[in-house]
Each structure stands twice: as structure tokens, then as C-alpha cells.
């Protein structure tokens, strides 16, 4: 979902006459936090089962990755779209912190996916139940073309990234003129 927001933001920025090189004209701070968080999320998404991480370790690593993203969004809150993306990160952080995993609606899932989540095969996701707190912040919005669901937080993150990239591509460095010497 986030890659779509980035790609669409770049496309819109380009269609509006922007340049990718303009993104670097106004730097973001602590960008390494995004890469560390991305590494942690990738490790959890693709390696948690292979590494046989305990559920608690996966939980704390995931929260750490969200905290890194929140710090990044706060430090760069003046950049267009990053505050909105940070709000989305916070909503995802909140629902995961309260439930231990990202709650997922079974709507739009295959029977195999529902059975796997019911069996507790994922350290990162769980089915929404009556005990789920803030279930409306979980992955409840089905994506027909991907066969998965996304959360309100995911939508805000994607919109924030879309806005950030298209606005940053149109950024023009201000020209400062020295006053004439008399």
C-alpha cells in the first residue's frame, strides 16, 4: 500500500512539472530511522516464521519500528505530508500496542487465510474478535485487487507519502539576493 502512495506521488509530481531531484533540495532529518524501521518490519514480515521469533519478541520489535517512524515523522513534521503519515503510523502503533498484533477482519479473506489466523500462525496478525480493542483501526478495509485488507492508519500513511513526494518534487529553492552595496 505504501509503495502505491509513493509511486502515485512521484507520478503526480512529475505530471505537475516537478523533478525527482527537487526532493533533495530540502532535506529530511534522521532518515536512517526509516531504513532501520523498514529493516525491522521486513525481518518480521518475511523472517519471523523462519527465525522462530517468540511472539513477545516480534511484538516489541514491531513497536520499536513504529516508535522509530514516529520520531522521524515528529522531527520532520514541517515537511508536507509527513505529519499525516505520522498520524497513520500512530494509529497503527496504537491498535497493535493494545492488541499485541494487528487485528484483521476476515472479510475478503480466503478460508485458508482465516484458518491460518485462527490457528495463530502469525505473530503479526490476528482475527478481530469481540475482545479486540479499537477494532475499527485494524485491517478492516478490503483491497479487491490484492486480496488483503488495510487499516485507516495505512490509508493515512499512503496519503501522507503521496502528498510528500508530489509536493517535494515541485519544491523550488528560494533565491536570496544580496542587497546592492552603496
Key traits:
182 residues; mainly alpha; two-stranded parallel ribbon; 6 helices
Structure in words:
The chain is mainly α and 182 residues long. The protein has a domain at 2-25 and 73-169. It contains 6 helices and 4 strands. The protein has a two-stranded parallel ribbon. The protein has a two-stranded antiparallel ribbon with strand order 3-4. α1 (2-15) packs parallel to α6, α2 (32-51) packs antiparallel against α3 (55-75) and α3 (55-75) packs antiparallel against α4 (82-99). It is elongated and about 80 Å long.
Backbone CA Rg: 19 Å
Which percent range describes the beta-strand content? Answer: 5-15%
Distance between the termini: 58 Å
Secondary-structure-based class equals: mainly alpha
Global shape:
elongated
* Strand and helix order: HHHHEHEEEH
Amino acid at each position: 500500500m505504501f509503495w502505491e502512495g509513493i509511486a502515485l506521488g512521484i507520478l503526480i509530481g512529475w505530471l505537475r512539472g516537478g523533478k525527482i531531484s527537487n526532493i533533495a533540495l530540502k532535506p529530511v532529518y534522521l532518515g536512517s530511522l526509516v531504513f532501520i524501521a523498514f529493516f525491522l518490519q521486513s525481518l518480521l514480515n518475511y523472517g519471523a516464521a523462519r527465525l522462530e521469533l517468540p511472539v513477545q519478541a516480534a511484538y516489541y520489535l514491531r513497536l520499536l519500528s513504529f516508535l522509530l517512524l514516529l520520531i522521524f515523522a515528529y522531527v520532520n513534521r514541517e515537511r508536507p505530508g509527513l505529519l499525516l503519515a505520522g498520524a497513520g503510523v500512530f494509529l497503527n502503533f496504537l491498535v497493535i500496542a493494545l492488541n499485541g498484533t494487528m487485528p484483521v477482519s476476515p472479510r475478503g479473506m480466503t478460508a485458508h487465510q482465516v484458518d491460518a489466523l485462527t490457528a495463530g500462525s502469525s505473530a503479526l496478525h490476528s482475527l478481530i474478535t469481540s475482545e479486540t480493542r479499537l477494532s475499527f483501526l485494524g485491517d478492516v478495509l478490503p483491497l479487491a485487487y490484492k486480496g488483503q485488507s488495510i487499516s485507516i492508519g495505512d490509508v493515512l500513511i499512503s496519503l501522507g507519502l503521496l502528498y510528500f513526494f508530489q509536493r517535494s518534487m515541485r519544491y523550488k529553492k528560494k533565491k536570496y539576493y544580496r542587497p546592492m552595496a552603496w
